[in-house]
Amino acid sequence: MMAFPIQALMDEQKCYDYLLLALHPQGLHCPAGHALRPGQKPHDRHRAPILDYRCPACGCVFNAFTHTVWQGSRYTCVQMVLILRGIAQGVPTEHLADELGIDRSHLLAKRHEIQQLLEQRLSPLTPAG
């Protein structure tokens, strides 16, 4: 199979915006459920476009990936989107890791984590919430 440098063609900000909407369809909130104030400035910008915010109600510092499968990940937003795309398309882990230039064993562990979450949330035995 031929590998294409697709991640070089993708926009980091657009991938972040996609992930933000997918992970937080009701808008970004702190882990305690407090909403950000309209126009609230980020607490930290060192990993832009991933911005850290401090909750005005409880003081908790969080970002779009806090309490998600991506928390603590060092993948770029482009890599995260391409990982999700690859898993959805059934691309083998080894090929996906080679294409993205990431460690296969870490990717395999992340793939299993994502598949387990999907199984829990989309199982026909799980009551609709």
How are the SSEs placed, and which strands pair?
Elements (H helix, E strand, L loop, with lengths): L11 H12 L20 E4 L2 E5 L6 E2 L14 H13 L3 H8 L3 H19 L7
Antiparallel strand pairs: 1-2, 2-3
Helix pairs in contact: 1-2, 3-4
Question: Assembly type of the shown chains?
Answer: single chain
Largest sheet: 3 strands, antiparallel
Name the average pLDDT.
88
Tally the beta strands: 3
Question: What's the helix count?
Answer: 4
H/E order of the elements? HEEEHHH
Terminal-residue CA separation:
41 Å
As a whole number of angstroms, the C-alpha radius of gyration is 16 Å
> Low-confidence segments, ≥5 residues, pLDDT <50?
none
Helix content class: 40-55%
Q: What share of residues are in beta strands?
A: 5-15%
Widest beta sheet: strand line-up = 1-2-3
Category from helices, strands and their pairing? mainly alpha
Based on Cα principal axes, name the global outline.
Answer: globular
